[in-house]
Description:
By secondary structure, this protein is α/β, with parallel strands linked by helices.
Amino acid sequence: MTEKRVPIGEAYAVLGTTPPPEVNPWYNALRQLDKAAEAMNLDSSYHKILATPKRVLEVQIPVRMDDGSIEVFLGWRVQHNDARGPCKGGIRYHPGVHRDEVKALAMWMTWKTAVVDIPYGGAKGGIKVDPHALSQGELERLTRRYAFMISPIIGVNRDIPAPDVYTGPREMAWIMDTYSQIVGYPEPGVVTGKPLEVGGSEGRNEATARGLQYTVEEAIRVLNIDPKRATAAVQGYGNAGYFAAKFMHELGMKVVAVSDSKGGIYNPDGLDPDAVLAHKQKSDDKSVRDFPGATNLDKDAKAANAKLLELDVDVLIPAAIENVITKDNADRIKAKLIAEAANGPTTPEADDILHEKGVLMIPDILANAGGVTVSYFEWVQARYREWWDLETVRNKLRAKMTRAFRDVYSLHEEKKIDMRTAALWLAIDRVVSAMKWRGIWP
């Protein structure tokens, strides 16, 4: 007997909400789930479970500002699924953060941890705030209050936060210390992405891009692309974007274009990623714009980023924000390979167009899973109070990422489906298998 599918409309009916516009990341996450569920003939009961987060916590965060006034910020911690282990996912600080974004990111974390086969579920956190508008003292008070508010549902065996957009080792150290004060003993395993001095791991800072590098190496091998004759463009020049550019350069590729939120640059002879980073750090507006020897892609930052995506390059790495590759520009993308360092940069319609064009996509839940993989390594090290050297971390990461790529690529070839659907199929199958073995209780 064929199981009835659960269309997106029904998933939203369960939630009691109306489907939002196409650009809403939660809507796109549900559509991706729906597509994979249809391809794999997923049991509708498990489809319904996976279409809703296990827990959504919304918290009020009052913070005393430096001038004595009190501001109130809104924060979330979403736990999507924990069938395979404790929930895992970053915390982002951004003025554009909203509930649906955090829900989508939590779902993607479930798939991400499953596709690289580490024993975690998916979670995500966020605070609606412009961190650049706060002093360090205000940021610390905000972070510690948020940590206190979510402390009932996090823990080394429950939910392990990590850095994300505009958070880093400093914020993770504050969260670890706050949680440790609450429980009454030091607990370095409650968060990952910490400074080395308080239980962090070697290789964590580069992990997202290093994992992406390992998947790109596998992809160019199957595409018969010689890295020493290849070109690359990177949209976004934060941590993941810079390291992605650096590692492509180390592979021998010409990185001909990079961009950030303020503009983009192009040089057909190639760019030195380290020199570009030094320029960005020294410039008045902290941008890659006006880098010596390169041409600005456009005076307008939005137009510059749009032009970068459509450059004639072999490898395109979106490492910035969501929904940058859409049905409106997908047909103009010339890259042979796209590796998603960012979360959710490609809409479902664009996926279909790119697949029809023969573009090989390394989807976000695979391409940028190096970060959560090394976070898992950090968590293991914290549990044993034993820390590994950088070579050990890199070797373990390469093994995980290489195997995950080959698993996804094999399913993609076997089922004649796009790489994102193949990655989702693999991840969903692992999550559902765990759910079936555990059962539904009570």
